[in-house]
Amino acid sequence: MKKFVLAGLMAATAFTPISSAVAQDRGHDHAERREARQERQQERREWRNDRRENRMEARQERREPQRDWTRRDHRQDGRQERREDRDWGNDRRDDRRDWSGRRGDAERRDWRQERRDWREGRNEWRRDRNEWRDDRRRVLNRWSDQRRWDHRWRDNHRYDWRSYRHSHRHIYRMPRYYAPRGWDYGYSRFSIGIFLGAPLYGSSYWIDDPWYYRLPPAYGSLRWIRYYDDALLVDMRDGYVVDVIYDFFD
Asked: Which of 13, 144, 169, 233 could join 243 in a cystine, given CB atoms 3.0 to 4.6 angstroms apart?
């Protein structure tokens, strides 16, 4: 029993220096960490202070020009701008007076005359357009009350006027053609679709017997007429040329 007690005392005395050394090392590490923590806190405080100072300086810089721009200065500048605008309006009126003064009565008359000419030209164009529409309407409605003219009569051997003229040349020798009074235009080569003047298709120019010249009979308001050496089929209602044979007579 005494041996065990002595052994325990000896072990306790042996470990006591080791535990004390460990405790000293731990206290030293704790002190270093505390110092490092304090340094970081100090640095953070300094950074915050610097940032606060920078913000205050920036605010001060933004406020300084606003302090310089007073309400009175703003009113004065606005009044000055309005005065300048009024001056500009007066200058513009003066320019208009000068321009109107320079522009003489002759220029006004010329401009008015040009406007009248333009209006007259527009009215003439409208009249021509209306006449063209009326003519087109008459052409479209031409065959509404009578049989449409058949241009294929040339394929019928009964109306082979060329062969008949070759053997009966004397029939197609006509006396001199005298144009109606007031017709000073001379010969014009008329085509299908135009309108003749009333003197050109008077009764004195009618071909009374178309079959005598081997022409197909005309019906309704249509008539064969002589125009110089041509034979024209004309609608007596308005002078519309329905068919043409050039150089029909000798």
From this structure: 233
> In this structure, which amino acid lies at residue 195?
F
- Structure-token pair, residue 104: 């003489």
- Residue whose C-alpha is closest to residue 248's, from 218, 220, 227: 227
Determine the Cα–Cα distance for residues 42 and 60; give it in Å rounded to an integer.
27
Alpha helix stretches (DSSP H) within 69-175: 71-102, 105-140, 161-167
Taking phi first (over 0 means left), then psi (-120 to 50 degrees means alpha), and beta for anything else, what does residue 163 get? alpha
Tokens for 12? 């306790």
Alpha carbon of 39 to those of 29, 42, 94: distances in Å?
15, 5, 80
Distance, CA of 7 to CA of 13 (rounded, Å): 10
What is the sign of the dihedral through the CA atoms of 102, 103, 107 and 108? negative
Which residues 6+ apart lie within 8 Å of 28 measured at CB? none
Predicted structure pTM score? 0.48
CA distance 242 to 250: 22
Which 8-state DSSP code applies to residue 242? E
pLDDT tens for each residue of 223-243: 999 999 999 999 999 999 999
Q: Which residues pair with 223 in a beta bridge?
A: 234
pLDDT of residue 112: 83
Specify whether the CB–CB gap between 222 and 149 falls below 8 A: yes
For residue 135, give every residue at least 6 positions away whose Cβ sits within 8 Å of its Cβ, in sequence order, or none. 195
Distance CA 215, CA 156 (A): 11
